[in-house]
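Re: Re: ligand-bound prediction request (bumping)

Still looking for help on this. To restate: I need the protein modeled with calcium ion bound, output as structure tokens. Inputs repeated here so nobody has to scroll up.
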Amino acid sequence: MIDARPANPIAPTVPLDTDGVHHGFLRLPSSRDESAWGSVMIPITVVKNGEGPTALLTGANHGDEYEGPVALQGLACDLTADRVSGRVIIVPYMNTPAFRAARRTSPLDGGNLNRLFPGRPDGTATEKIADFFMESLVPTADLVLDFHSGGKTLDFVPFAAAHLLDDPMQEAACFEAMKAFNAPYSMALREIDAVGMFDTAVEEAGKVFVSTELGGGGTVTARSARIARRGAENVLKHAGILAGEVEMVPSVMIDTTVGDCFHFSERDGLIEPMVDLGEKVDKGAPLAAIWSLERTGEKPEFVLAKRTGILAARHFPGLVKMGDCLAVVASVVD
Ligand code: CA
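Reply:
Sorry for the wait, this slipped through. Here it is.
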């Protein structure tokens, strides 16, 4: 049998399986006008000490989300091999071209990394990054923590999330790791469109997967940065990779797997929010008024909550376009 699978051109500049702390890059050849034989250099840190589980920690899967990158830069600087049992692989800027451009998607090819999994070894730059993760990093991992937040167009209450899965054992392991992250909110999640997501690919590979949404608006706050860093260390403790007890404070369990949680704008307009993040809203109550962009004297269109719960996410910029996600109302689980 001839293996018809082309080789992925991405090469790590550091060993992935040698004891110690290794800071380097995943080097992706990228021939372009500015650099004929150039490369995309994706920073990576590998901290390994003997046998034990492997955790893969990733940020900037979407390039305009900053809690993960901030927390993982701190962790990559501070982790010493003697504190680790097993291995921690840290990639703070998964989609480095998008991150460097402060964009959700890659300026190289328009690629939305979190819609292109499992990727292709001979595809676009973004597809090659996805393929490298699935072929070379995820198979070595027991647990994957992928940081997200709302980016420039959404803002979230800070939560860690786990998905409902077909395998009850795997689902329970994901929920335990999500609870260990211990964000102020913990979310049972169903995606709007799961195809092509890193989440889905990692879960299909049978791994424990935790994601987050820790804020948004294309920035990071002191609070959300602290939540991210503490959550990462908690998950490593939960996995037995770092010593010490998981630091637990009360977390509100919220759910978007039942009912009509997602509210989309049916017109372009100026948003007047009527509920802030974390506030309770009753079914039928207005979430926002959408004012005309064209004229005065025209009544706004009210977007009404389709269910009772708390406002878990909102459109961030002050103007909304038809079809944009305006709000997510999550139910609070007792
Ligand atoms: Ca995201």
